[in-house]
From TrEMBL:
<keyword id="KW-0963">Cytoplasm</keyword>
<feature type="binding site">
    <location>
        <position position="94"/>
    </location>
    <ligand>
        <name>Fe cation</name>
    </ligand>
</feature>
<dbReference type="InterPro" id="IPR009078">
    <property type="entry name" value="Ferritin-like_SF"/>
</dbReference>
<dbReference type="GO" id="GO:0008198">
    <property type="term" value="F:ferrous iron binding"/>
</dbReference>
<keyword id="KW-0479">Metal-binding</keyword>
<comment type="similarity">
    <text>Belongs to the ferritin family. Prokaryotic subfamily.</text>
</comment>
<dbReference type="GO" id="GO:0042802">
    <property type="term" value="F:identical protein binding"/>
</dbReference>
<keyword id="KW-0560">Oxidoreductase</keyword>
<comment type="function">
    <text>Iron-storage protein.</text>
</comment>
<dbReference type="InterPro" id="IPR008331">
    <property type="entry name" value="Ferritin_DPS_dom"/>
</dbReference>
<feature type="binding site">
    <location>
        <position position="50"/>
    </location>
    <ligand>
        <name>Fe cation</name>
    </ligand>
</feature>
<protein>
    <recommendedName>
        <fullName>Ferritin</fullName>
        <ecNumber>1.16.3.2</ecNumber>
    </recommendedName>
</protein>
<dbReference type="GO" id="GO:0008199">
    <property type="term" value="F:ferric iron binding"/>
</dbReference>
<feature type="binding site">
    <location>
        <position position="17"/>
    </location>
    <ligand>
        <name>Fe cation</name>
    </ligand>
</feature>
<feature type="binding site">
    <location>
        <position position="127"/>
    </location>
    <ligand>
        <name>Fe cation</name>
    </ligand>
</feature>
<dbReference type="InterPro" id="IPR009040">
    <property type="entry name" value="Ferritin-like_diiron"/>
</dbReference>
<dbReference type="GO" id="GO:0005829">
    <property type="term" value="C:cytosol"/>
</dbReference>
Length: 168
């Protein structure tokens, strides 16, 4: 049985995942407004992935007999200084998610809640990929600086990104 503290941490993270999807859609909107359609696609796919993560937690909570309660989603940041700024913001968001899952893992460890530890391990492994991806994009975009041709080619690659919901 999940402790109240662990239940709440999981519910909070579920809601954070759905809020992150909202944030990524706001980044997509900024990119589209700036005619960066390929980068907008990248963020739309990120939003799909975050909704998948939120739904994964939702299902886990319900499987464990916990009422997965939804909270208000805060208004996302809608204005950015640059394309690079969207990726900086995305990396910070992913680092927050990593810290949240560390906290959930710590609570589960204290509670000796091994099923939740197993469940959370998937997310921790995912966060390695997420943070690395944003760091790589920051490096690439930083190197491109004002090279419009290189940015165009890079954007075309991101326009091909597609998130498929994994079979479980």
């Amino acid at each position: 049985m999940l402790s109240d503290k662990l239940k709440q941490a999981l519910i909070d993270q579920m809601n954070h995942e759905f809020a992150a999807a909202h944030e990524y859609l706001a980044m997509a909107s900024y990119c589209e407004n700036q005619s960066y359609d390929g980068f907008a696609n990248f963020y739309k796919q990120q939003a799909k992935e975050e909704r998948f993560h939120g739904t994964k937690i939702y299902n886990y909570l319900n499987d464990r007999g916990v009422h997965a309660k939804f909270q208000a989603i805060p208004e996302p940041k809608n204005d950015y200084e640059s394309l690079l700024d969207t990726f900086r913001h995305g990396l910070e968001q992913e680092k927050t998610v990593t810290r949240n899952f560390y906290e959930i893992s710590d609570i589960a460890t204290e509670d000796r809640e091994h099923m939740t530890l197993s469940f959370v391990r998937w997310f921790l492994d995912e966060q390695v990929e997420e943070e690395s991806m944003f760091e790589t994009h920051l490096d690439y975009i930083g190197r491109l600086k004002d090279d419009g041709n290189a940015l165009y080619v890079y954007e075309q690659e991101l326009a091909k990104r597609h998130f498929n919901v994994p079979e479980e």
